[in-house]
Amino acid sequence: MPPTSTPQTPFGRVLTAMVTPFTADGALDLDGVQQLAAHLVDAGNDGLVVNGTTGESPTTSDAEKARVVRAVVEAVGDRAHVVAGAGTNDTAHSLELARAAEQAGAHGLLAVTPYYNKPPQEGLYRHFTAIADATGLPVMLYDIPGRSGVPINTETLVRLAEHPRIVANKDAKGDLGRASWAIATSGLAWYSGDDMLNLPLLSVGAIGYVSVVGHLVTPELRAMLEAHVSGDVVKATEIHQKLLPVFTGMFRTQGVITAKGALALKGLPSGPLRMPLVELSPEETEQLKHDLAVGGVQL
């Protein structure tokens, strides 16, 4: 069983959106998946999100996604929440992924806003409700209009929060004003999905984060959160400012590209990327090394 959930923190507080390690020939590296999952939980993560954007979900098959969930649950499922990405821009396919994730042992689902086809708010409501109805798992919505093309409006979030299994939102909208209103009116557990805004979102009511830089700096992220919760705003701000070069460096290009590059530099499982994503150039690698060094990351 995963760690105990509460309505306030249904998936814990500190989660990393995990990359999917591949072998040199591009196949799924299940040993690497388990090693990386264990490393991240040992570092202080309460949970891991697998098969999300950072997990290269657009280029992994449904069967591979189920194998990743099983592997991570086997490796850390008694110590951390395993949240499986199940969102696509096809509701029927999303329901298949949700049921497969439940069968594979996932503790929760991450449901991203359908991308490219730009559904109206009623379409979003029906899509997310269908996913929540498909299994007995709790659902974290994922609002990222920069990728999906459509935001989940506050009114829609409030409606969705009425569903007993829609319990949280991962916010990558980049709008603190709209986040403030949605947190206040929806009652959803709010997770930052934008590392640069981790502390600002905590300040308006978020309870934790789903991070990419957590691959490298989970202890610092946890220390920042604990300082904030304890009321030590000065310390939380100091940690946030120390991490600014890491936040910037890890998103100079696509986050999974830099995450895999950084993990490789540290000798941790990562492997190549699947096309159309490509590895960092030598110049980009040197820039990443510099950014991480300035932010205090040891490679």
Brief rundown of the structure:
By secondary structure, this protein is of the alpha/beta class.
Please describe the structure with a list of short key phrases separated by commas or semicolons.
8 strands; 12 helices; alpha/beta; single chain
* Count of discrete alpha- or pi-helical segments spanning 4 or more residues: 12
Strand order of the largest sheet: 1-2-3-4-5-6-7-8
Low-confidence stretches: none
Specify the oligomeric state: single chain
Order of helices and strands: EHEHEHEHEHHEHEHEHHHH
Distance between the termini: 34 Å
Q: What level of helicity do the residues show?
A: 40-55%
The assigned structural class equals alpha/beta
User: What is the molecular shape?
Assistant: globular
Word description of this protein:
This protein is of the alpha/beta class and 299 residues long. The chain contains twelve helices and eight strands. It has an eight-stranded parallel beta barrel, surrounded by five helices. The longest helix is centred in the last third of the chain and has 18 residues, at 233-250.
Q: Mind sketching the topology for me?
A:
Elements: E1 14-17, H1 30-42, E2 47-50, H2 62-76, E3 81-85, H3 91-104, E4 108-112, H4 121-134, E5 139-143, H5 145-148, H6 154-160, E6 166-171, H7 176-186, E7 189-192, H8 198-203, E8 208-211, H9 214-230, H10 233-250, H11 255-265, H12 282-294
